[in-house]
Amino acid sequence: METEWEEMKRWPTKPLGEFAEVIRGVSFDKSQVFGAPGQKLVPILRAGNIQDSLLTDSDLVFVPAHLVSPEQRMRQGDLAVCMSSGSPAIVGKSAHLESDWDGSVGAFCAIVRFNEKLHHRFGSYWFRSPAFTQWRDNNAKGANIQNLRRTELESLSVPIPPLPEQERIVKLLDEADELRKLRAQANRRTAALIPSLFYEMFGQADFVEKTIGQFLEQGWLLLHKDGNHGSLYPRSSDFGIEGIPFLSATCVNDEGTIDHLKVKRLVEAKAKLLRHGWIEPGDVLLAHNASVGAVGFYDGDYDRAIIGTSLTVFRANPDRIEPRFLWASLRDLFFQDQLERIMKQALRNQVPITAQRELFLRIPALALQKEFAARVSDIRAVQAEQAASRRRLDDLFQSMLHRAFQGDL
């Protein structure tokens, strides 16, 4: 009698096109795009909306309904897949639509619509599996822009166990995925403690209010030059798996820390030519071009690190400003609203250093700042433990994904 393992190993693999329809995203030009909903307009998802789940309520564009065919309107269970991007890690990224939503995806994406022979959750997990990632790495083409072709996706071989087995695997993976989501929710609640603490301690405090330029002139702050290296700015060929950590705006996450998975490595010979981009522990990073307003704190996680042109670095004089307080101040609504006004007035998504010098900061007594920093350190210690827990859950989930499609779950 065959063991369950031997039976699983005989799962047939068949082309995705036999079990799903791959639908092209909606094509449109700039003149047909609207930034807000309106009558006879359809919301469109882009690659940035494809995260662990689909973000259907933010960062949308809207196009006239006549551009969207009936089959391009997403249905519950559909999978949105990024088919083209300048970032290899983004190509092939996917997330499924969990509930009814009347919208579609842009031309750089596609919709995968599974039929009744393949459980849509089983199919969506397959697109997150190590096996699919390897296929993507082998098939994404393009020198600067990486692309997946629709025909290649349709011919992709997918393991097809019986439906009851698909449902069993989906149940196990759903349970593991739910643990990850609960951990992420707890992390977000902990992160929310810091802005609440900031408001509690400084909402009614006395402070000195001056522009950043004035604080710079009086020695309260140092403006560390950004990584604007002109013709020396690194190109894609200057990065590798080893070298000097290179931080850009995309490396700053929502919690105000550095996402180490997004940090690139710049070859050391190239890094030595970039004289103005080196940073030190305690530096506060402000994204002024791309992800404008993201604020990160550099803890000194690397022996050496360098920044790109999308970041400005502020270095606090510790006799005047506590670095952790400065970090929280730049994340506070008082400062973020100023950035928003500048972008609206300039009609562009950037805030140059000359404009940053005109922004106001409110600085209270140093003793109060230090008390705040000490309490933040306690919260950050909790966050570090939570992050380690999240990494363990992520590793477990990836292991389960691998085993699931090897027939070993």
Give the oligomer, counting copies of the same chain as homo and different chains as hetero: single chain
- Structural class call reads alpha+beta
Q: What would you report as the Rg, rounded to the nearest angstrom?
A: 24 Å
Strand content: 15-25%
Measured between the Cα atoms of the first and last residue, the distance is: 20 Å
Q: What is the CATH C level class of the largest domain, in words? A: Alpha Beta
CATH architecture of the largest domain: Alpha-Beta Complex
Task: State the helicity in percent bands.
Answer: 25-40%
| CATH third-tier fold name of the largest domain | Adenine-n6-DNA-methyltransferase TaqI, Chain A, domain 2
As laid out across the biggest beta sheet, the strand order is: 2-9-5-7
The low-confidence runs, each spanning 5 or more residues with pLDDT under 50, are 1-8
How many H/I helices?
12
Number of strands: 21
- Into how many domains do the coordinates divide? 3
- Tell me about the biggest sheet? 4 strands, antiparallel
Average pLDDT rating: 88
* Shape by Cα distribution: globular
CATH superfamily of the largest domain: DNA methylase specificity domains
